[in-house]
Amino acid sequence: MKLVVAVVQDQDSNRLSNALTKNQFRATKLASTGGFLRSGNTTFLIGTEDSLIPKLLDIIRDNCRAREQMVAPVSPLGGNADSYLPYPVEVEVGGATVFVLPIEQFHHF
Ligand code: 2BA
Questions:
Q1: Which parts of the chain are beta strand (E)?
Q2: What is the pLDDT of residue 94?
Q3: Which end of the chain is less congested by CB atoms within 10 angstroms, N or C?
Q4: Which residue, judged by its Cα, is nearest atom 38 of ligand 1?
Q5: By the 8 A CB rule, do 36 and 72 touch?
Q6: How many beta carbons lie within 10 A of that of residue 103, not counting itself?
Q7: Is 63 in the pocket of ligand 1 (CB under 6 A)?
Q8: Whose CA is closest to atom 1 on ligand 1?
Q9: Is the CB of 20 under 6 A from ligand 1?
Q10: Would you identify the CATH topology of the domain 2-74+86-102?
């Protein structure tokens, strides 16, 4: 069994949720915040059998898309002004960032 941790953009989370339910995957959604953009994203925890991982990755890939997002300038409070960018910068935020972890034990009481 594996635990899949998928960080996705908020805009894709409902669509992904619906697709997971439709395909009988059980998932938990956590509200999360990206460390770089410091804006909201959604983290899915999905426990599933090893044999279903390829199908699950396909569903995540099909329901999450990359987007350009602007990074607003943040003034360096007491920090190093050399690294301060006074203008917004565009970054591509991925469709999904996915980690697949082995599970030692699974209990469902
Ligand atoms: P954020 O940390 O807010 O990052 C948003 C996007 O900003 C990233 O998209 C990437 O394009 C860019 N970015 C992040 N750190 C950067 C840096 N040090 N320099 C330049 N650009 C940077 P994604 O790579 O698609 O990541 C989307 C979200 O997935 C991240 O939001 C974070 O919440 C999560 N994530 C990505 N990689 C991770 C990792 N190795 N561990 C844990 N969470 C991760």
A1: 2-9, 27-33, 40-48, 67-71, 89-93, 96-102
A2: 86
A3: C
A4: 97
A5: no
A6: 11
A7: no
A8: 34
A9: no
A10: Alpha-Beta Plaits (3.30.70)
CB distance 36 to ligand 1 below 6 Å:
yes
Pocket test for ligand 1, best of 90, 93, 100, 101 (most atoms within 8 A of CB): 93
Using CA atoms of 41, 47, 52, 55 in order, give the dihedral in degrees to the nearest 10.
-10
Please name the residue that has the structure tokens 């460390």. 35
Domain range annotation of the chain: 2-74+86-102
Separation CA 13–CA 71 (nearest Å)? 21
Q: Which atom of ligand 1 is nearest to the CA of 93?
A: 9
